[in-house]
Amino acid sequence: MTDLIAKKTAEVCKLISELGTVDDKIDALNEVREALHKVSPLKDHPADFVKWVKLEQVKGNKYNPNHVAPPELKLLRKSVGKFGYTMSIVACFVDGVLQIVDGFHRHLVGMYKEIKESTFGRVPVTQMRASQQEYPDLVSGTILHNRARGEHAVDGMSNIVVQLKLDFDMSDKWIFDNLGIDAEELMRLTQIAGIARMVAGKDFSKSWKPGEEDNLKQGEY
């Protein structure tokens, strides 16, 4: 079986190498990788399939609270230019468009001439699971990716909490579980946004009250 797979793999590689244009080759490789991903024991993990997507087919989101300062963006450009892309952009389809969940600045540096030429105008993309494509899931994905790297902007976070509470009626527990924050931080963020009283009657009373957050220990909600 191993010899047969090796033989078929060589045949596929030969077919792809004989395609006329670079775009044809990249598209064919994407198709092969996706087909392999579908039968992979690791298919539940998005990183199992990285697709090279044209820059213009990937768009940013409107809710990411983080901003990279020019010096850091310059370093990112240098890093990708020197070592190539070592991390893919995380995205999902929203209204037929690939929207970035994590990696906005990796997408941005892909527009620089020297990097764009090296990638033939494409960027590496990993797609979120099909079961996690609702707006709150996407926000959670962005925030947790940022916070796992120790990055988050307080003002932007407070705006997101407000939106999730008021527009999507997400509970405190959902926010605790999906944004990686605790009761004290949630209280602080709502105070920054000036809506502590406004949202207190919706859900906070079920889990904690303003001024009582010190009595809540991690894992009790």
UniProtKB/TrEMBL annotation:
Q: Which InterPro entries match?
A: ParB/Sulfiredoxin_sf
- Organism name: Chitinophaga parva
Q: Can you say what this protein is called?
A: ParB/Sulfiredoxin domain-containing protein
